[in-house]
Amino acid sequence: MNFLAHAQLSFHQPEILVGNMISDFVKGKKQYDYSPGIQQGIKLHRAIDQFTDTHPVTKELKQYFRSSYGLYAGVFTDVMYDYFLANDTQEFVSAEALQQFSAGCYHTLETYDAVLPASFKKIFGYMRSQDWLFHYHEKWLIEKSFWGLERRAKYLKETGQAFIIFNEHLDELHLGYDIFYPQLKDFAVHTLQKLLKH
Fold this sequence. Notes:
Layout (H helix, E strand, L loop, with lengths): L2 H6 L5 H9 L13 H19 L1 H14 L3 H14 L8 H17 L6 H12 L2 H4 L3 H14 L8 H8 L1 H28 L1
Helix pairs in contact: 2-3, 3-11, 4-5, 4-10, 4-11, 5-9, 5-11
């Protein structure tokens, strides 16, 4: 999953949010440098990613991108999920609710500035200034994110094909999200409950 989903699946718990957001920037034993709460967030993030990557719906949706992007198909699928989440009125009843949620996430992360990895801080600067979490509900940010993925990927050419695929198959992709996300949320709730008991 991408940033918005990891933030939302932290369930308003500050240290879980921090761990969930920085997990990809914390390698190996470095995770043990953090407080137990942040470590739980890191573990939750990794469990969410594994559940997402191995879920039958995700595997099906990746096929829309696979012919053009091969092994990178899953990265585009993750970004796409955030678009549908940002527009999911079961999760965010309005744009104002999404805006408030996003602002709260930025504020929480800012209060943990001293422990954020330098590599995450760089990304977070752009995330906050450009308000990614909120703007995931708009197609222009999805297009920009897709272009950025193409530009950064070592073996991809910048073709813009991902956004074309996204628009052409929007209904099918949305249906897949509607099936998948409630299952992911249930999984995240139960996984976090287990982590908090240890």
